[in-house]
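Worked example 2:
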Amino acid sequence: MGRYQGKQIQACILLGGLGVRLKPLTNSIPKAMAPVVGDRPFLHLLIDYLRSQGLRRLLLLVGYKGSVIRNYFGSGSRFGVSIDYSEDPELLGTGGALRRAAPFLEDTFILVFGDTFARVNYGEFLEAGYETNCSLLMTVASRDAMGLPRGNVKVDEGDRVAAYRPRGGKECGHVDAGVLFIDKSVIRLLRVNEKSSLESTIYPYLIERGEVAAFIMDGRFYDIGTVEGLRMFKRHNAQIGRPDSRDML
């Protein structure tokens, strides 16, 4: 039995972005609320999948038009989960939003980017998170599975992240899938009420110290942050149907 068994792991979802590349759709809603199945928003499907994988304690890090998310999901009871919220009205970036949420974060937690859908086996992922001696476990997909000429993550032979290139690099054979297992101690790297990003603040510091491990997922993930990405996810979802109880651990 894995160390995670019997524990209620906290899953945090980053949802504060402006969704500029999805305008005019995001003039009235945050991008995670983009409809993907009828009027069912992307975030609904993401939460369904997390629940089906045994993740029922959620913290939503909201910012831009966060009230739309609050009004739809409320306490989460209608969706079979428990939801708390941390609000970032100043839009301090991924790092700033995480630092603001520090009082609500547990010692170890999962962080999911709210504009990506990765069909991760969370049982295996959590086991790897507890087994690794690193402060951060990053889920990555093969750039070949993603159909990309280059990735943004270089993984060494020991499954450590050796480099992170936000703009991509030819030496990078993998792509950051937007799912992390984090030790809360890394939050000390972020300053209160200061705009920052995980990519520019936390990742380089921890990678230099060998503190980032890679969890290589099967297949690809979907990023709905662009019109084409949203369209691709809709096609994918139409082919496989909604995540359901068949995805249970």
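The first helix runs from residue 42 to 52. Residues 243-249 have pLDDT under 50 and may be disordered.
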